[in-house]
Amino acid sequence: MKSLLDGSKPCLYALDFYYDGHRKTGIIGPSIVVRVHNKFIEGFKFNPDMPALEIMKERFGLTDFKYDLKSDIGYNGVIKRVGGPQERHAGFDFTEFKVNLPWKKTQIEGQCSKCGGSAMIDDEDCPDCFGTGFDYLENEDIESEINTISASLAVLFSILRDDSVYDISTDRKQLLTVETIPQVRNEESSLFGIVSSDLMMNIFPNIYKGKYLIADKIIGSMIAAYNCMNFGGDPTDSKSESELAKFRINIGDKFSLLMYAPGTTISSGSECLIYPNTYGRAGAYKYTSKDINSPLIQLVFLAGLAQLYREGQFWMHRPYM
Ligand SMILES: [Zn+2]
Questions:
Q1: Distance set, CA 148 to CA 100, 122, 152, 153, 184 (Å)
Q2: Does pLDDT of 87 surpass 50?
């Protein structure tokens, strides 16, 4: 069987991350993208007894997973079918699905009631409007929206774990896989998967070098996702430096990569650690982030991994843009 571990698996699904950053233009963002090979969609048969469905029912009370891949999918249809072909990014054989991350606050007409529109309080950015002076509408449903997205993606990735033989022909290799278990209340959340050696070999030489800083791009995507769901201000605004400093990417032993976000600490197991898979077939990498204490941070790491996928495609298939 063609395996991701030896880098020969044709791409069943790819990840990507979009961030437009211009809410006033009506374009929503940031969003996590999953592109699924059309042969998989043609041959897909939904299994109503999937264990993932039971977990989501127990943890979130979610029961109505929409699984027709020719339409929007997920609970409440939160994974939107964009369609295809996506020539620009992954050849003609993929259908694109997209999850728009929810904003905690949405900018509306009028002035911030706390600072009166001045944007400043005691020479600091107003905490209510993040130094914009604009009024915001608070999203009261943000927590359940995040849970629904997290649960929907967990089921989708569980579906895409399918190793059945599909007649997939594409020059694209699968660069990484994702499996997630979303957390609720005191339950543990985790994120894990495999990263192809091709991807890592293309990433390492370029991660801190040159004009195109991969580490900065990944951190930027994680911050955009975090700010959107956590603050809701415009993610391009300046934020507290201590909060931003918690986003870091380090190179660890033996060409491992460590990704940190707020709420994750060094060696806690909650950081996202990409490490060489020395116990199996040589070459591949695995990654894991356990004990994440919120679905929000899980989605933030997913945004970082989606950006990593994007970077991999860029370096391996240049020029694709
Ligand atoms: Zn204000």
A1: 12, 39, 6, 9, 11
A2: no
